[in-house]
Amino acid sequence: MPEWRVRIAGTSVALKGLPRLLPPTCSIVDWDGMRCLKSPLFDTLHEAAEVMTAAANFLEAANLVAALRVPGWHPVACDAVAEMREVETKHWAKFLSASIVVSASMTASATVVRADGTIERPSDPPAFNNEAQLVMQNAPVRQTLSFLQEDSWESLYKAYEIVRADVGGDQALCALGWATGSVLSRFRHTCQSPTALGSEARHGVERAAPPSRPLGHAEARNLVASLIAKWIEGQLT
Asked: Cα–Cα distances in Å, from 80 out to 10, 36, 151?
């Protein structure tokens, strides 16, 4: 049975940070001067195309979690599959352009020097492997994070709708302490208002008075991302 590796590339910071975003059954290994994805799942497969598909699914989960958890993330991709047999022969099968560049920017923690001169070392960043595994297993979570990653007004509203429906409505969101009724109302009103958003609004005509304090896009994204994060955390507890 062949043993498979899937090649990735990126900065040293990206490759160092990526393992905390991958599903637990996937890891990064050094092989022949390259960084590769490895998983027991790969070794149950027989065709390179199947392995590439499985690797792309792992990386999609990592990218979706990163869209929620890591500011400034650039999507990660894979571009080649290697088959290793007992005789140590290696065969690369390229299915995506070799020009694909894999990169990711992680938010670094700064070292803090206290007033007394002692040094506070940065703590290790949190791991989100279980969230990536949930993405692999839960279609609504995957869809919601895909909408967040798309980051349009329409997609943000769709992500909000999924979370709201799952927990039981806006009142439930407020009762859980995830948001206030006023900010949810401003979000909905802004999303629906062509006066506020023009062609990006969910409605083509103004159905009520336009919002007096429309949310900015960054504020709306932060709201939806916060709702999604709390929703996912609730499913993992």
From this structure: 14, 9, 29
SS3 129: helix
- Give the whole-angstrom CA distance, residue 195 versus residue 209: 9
Return the structure tokens found at 233: 């955390």
- The CB-based long-range contact list for 199-202 (8 Å cut-off, 24+ gap) reads 200/152, 200/153, 200/154, 201/153, 202/153, 202/154, 202/157
- Look up the pTM and report it: 0.82
Let me know: does 28 contact 69? Beta carbons within 8 Å.
Answer: no
Sequence-ordered alpha helix ranges (H) in 70-123: none
Question: What are 13-68's pLDDT values in tens digits?
Answer: 667 789 999 999 999 988 877 888 999 999 899 888 899 999 999 999 999 999 99
